[in-house]
Amino acid sequence: MALADNPLSVEVTLPRDDVALVxxxxxLDVDTATEFQAxxxxxxxxxxxxxxxxxxxVPFMDSSGMNIILRVYQETRRLDGVVQVIDPAPxxxxxxxLTGVSITVPIAAxxxxxxxxxxRQTAGAAPGVPAPER
Length: 134
Fold this sequence. Notes:
By secondary structure, the chain is an alpha/beta fold.
């Protein structure tokens, strides 16, 4: 399928200064992952260290999408940050669970739950010390 047949939409909002809510819509695969990666890199560049990745409108995700999620997770851990997947579509949730990505990157039901988890995970973290593991 050509990229024009399978566009990806990535919208970033800032519920807080250091939190980026990244809403993705469309198939997240090798043909479309570059836009997702570019948006995350841009937010890291602008000082965001917590990411809520809303995948509720992603009906399909391949290893390209999973690799990007894991890379941003690794980068944010160095910054004492948090990455979470918000309300993934059923097929995407299944992929995250089967591959074990959901063990590393928590899944939240909605943005409010995601923000509460950011607060819990960062509450005791001193600068330069990673937040406790879940």
